Amino acid sequence: MEPNFKEMGVADLREYVLNNRQNKQAIQALFTHPSIDWKSLPPMFAEDGTPIEENIRIVEAAILEQATQERKQEAAKKIEPNFKEMGVADLREYVLNNLQNKQAVKALFSHPSIDWKSLPPMFAEDGTPIAENIRIVEAAIMEQATQERKQEAKKKIEPNFKEMGVADLREYVLNNPQNKQAVKALFSHPSIDWKSLPPMFAEDGTPIAENIRIVEAAIMEQATQERKQEAAKKIEPNFKEMGVADLREYVLNNPQNKQAIEALFSHPSIDWKSLPPMFAENGTPIAENIRIVEEAILEQATQERRQEAKKKIEPNFKQMGVADLREYVLKNLQNKQAVKALFSHPSIDWKSLPPMFAEDGTPIAENIRIVEGAIREQATQEKKQEAEKKIAQQKKVKAQLRAEIAEQLEAKLRSRLEKELQNQLNQLEKKLRAKLGNKLIQVGKR
């Protein structure tokens, strides 16, 4: 099924056309896309149909520019993770891969899992980095990250070995031979009669190779039996509820399934009484009759597929605008309902237009051109309105973004000013205390 070209952007549509150059609908959709101002671009072909290479390059450049802009917008929409909800381990990895992300760096170096009060400052008062202190902080972050990873590893729940069958348990042990609990569970599984098997080790702990092979064979036999039972439990489709088309496909993919074959060659949708027998009385297949039966099955299957295709819901023509309806009709000229909906659309003043056909049913070419012009004009107007709505929406989004950015900047500036003011007040307080202290000392000396 082809994608909906009307809903695709220029970037995706351009890629599709490059990979499907024979698809005329996709090409038409690309070279009429409403995101591009076609009126401002020169024609790609002369009046005699000769391509104008310079103009084609200009149009290709315009398409590429729009596609690049769309890709940038898509990249900008990618949502960053919630740094407040991330642990130190994940946050550290993110920062290492995104060193330019100030929010992530700030979240890492103020994470509540680390006791920052116990750590020395990484920078001197003049802003100079203190290498030794930075190493200490990095070591503390690394220690917390390692601890988190260990906790995550511990949280991984092992399977319940007691509930596992021999087949699954055997596979687990082969992939995890170091897991003692799994090995113990396998070699004491209740599905195997261990009393009937010889010991795998002598009294002094020496392994007995022959006995080990016998035990392995018993485990393998039980595992194989379980796998066969699992395969038998797989539920086949209900052949009685299937149509000839689906049943025929199933039989072609599963020719060994006798129930499916029996259901196909006795399906009630086919008139078997009118068909000749496929086998003679002695059981010999009759090739000509088999071909006749196969053709009858194929005919019924084809008929069912056509009915399924017809059942696919068409768009609601009453809710479509002239622009979309016109495009649909151009692609589906045989659809009478769509054609009728277009040529009776309430957006067009049909009373003011001349009749397209004479009384004897002969088409009037001039009048048809007038009607087509009216339809095209209405379609163009609708496209313009859609474009204006998009522009208005984009402006609204930009205005909201500007307001949010302004609010964030104001908050940051206010916080910075408050800190600077507090620092100045602290310094002034220190100076005042120092002056008062000196005066008190002088008074004391007097």
Overview of the molecule:
The chain has 15 helices and no strands. Helix 4 crosses helix 6. The mean pLDDT is 88. Helix content is 59%, strand content 0%. The chain has 446 residues and is mainly α. The longest helix has 81 residues, at 365-445.
Describe the global form.
flat
Number of helices: 15
Which spans of ≥5 residues are poorly predicted at pLDDT below 50? none
Our estimate of the beta-strand percent is: under 5%
The tally of strands reads 0
Distance from N terminus to C terminus (CA atoms, Å) equals 102 Å
Which terms summarize this structure?
446 residues; mainly alpha
Q: What are the SSEs and their pairings?
A:
Blueprint (H helix, E strand, L loop, with lengths): L9 H10 L4 H7 L22 H24 L11 H10 L4 H7 L22 H25 L10 H10 L4 H7 L22 H25 L10 H10 L4 H7 L22 H25 L10 H10 L4 H7 L22 H81 L1
Helix pairs in contact: 1-2, 1-3, 4-5, 4-6, 7-8, 7-9, 10-11, 10-12, 13-14, 13-15
